[in-house]
Amino acid sequence: MRGLYFEEFEVGKVYKHPFTRTVTEMDNIMFTSLTMNLQPLHLDEEFAKTTIHGRRVFNSLFTLALIGAFHVPELTMGTTLGNLGYDEVKFPHPVFHGDTLRAETTILDKRESKSRTDSGIVWFEHRGYNQDDVLVCLCRRVGLMLKKPADADSNEKES
């Protein structure tokens, strides 16, 4: 399985990724602990009860990483050269333990690289939703994508 080459991206196309993931207390505690984020809103149930949420809130960087990964098998597996940057990241609604997340990606724009002949630049918008179809994460990012190699058609026919 491979992602799309630069030429295969269509501006305006929306991909509704087939994967979902229920996020767990363990996910939140492990990610928060591994990244040394001491925020009690993520780790301390008693503290969290005193906040506007009334319970622990998922670490937003985990949410971003998960939503940002749903597209990989479909769009960028083996065809990306890396992220160039994030233009916008928003978390309009909190994520809680037990929420089930899904994602969609829209191709916002693309252009050929000015410095590399083997690649182009693609602008993505990734949106994450919970089980109630509430938007929980919006991310606009820029990626450097491989162009289709000259021998790609013959290699794919052999597979």
UniProtKB/TrEMBL annotation:
A family per Pfam: MaoC_dehydratas
Domain MaoC-like: 11-117
InterPro entries, sorted: HotDog_dom_sf, MaoC-like_dom, MCH/BMMD
CDD domains listed in its UniProt record: FkbR2
Gene3D superfamilies, A to Z: Hotdog Thioesterase (3.10.129.10)
Record PANTHER family: BETA-METHYLMALYL-COA DEHYDRATASE, MONOAMINE OXIDASE-RELATED
Name of this chain's protein: MaoC family dehydratase
UniProt organism field: Thermobifida alba
Species lineage: Bacteria, Bacillati, Actinomycetota, Actinomycetes, Streptosporangiales
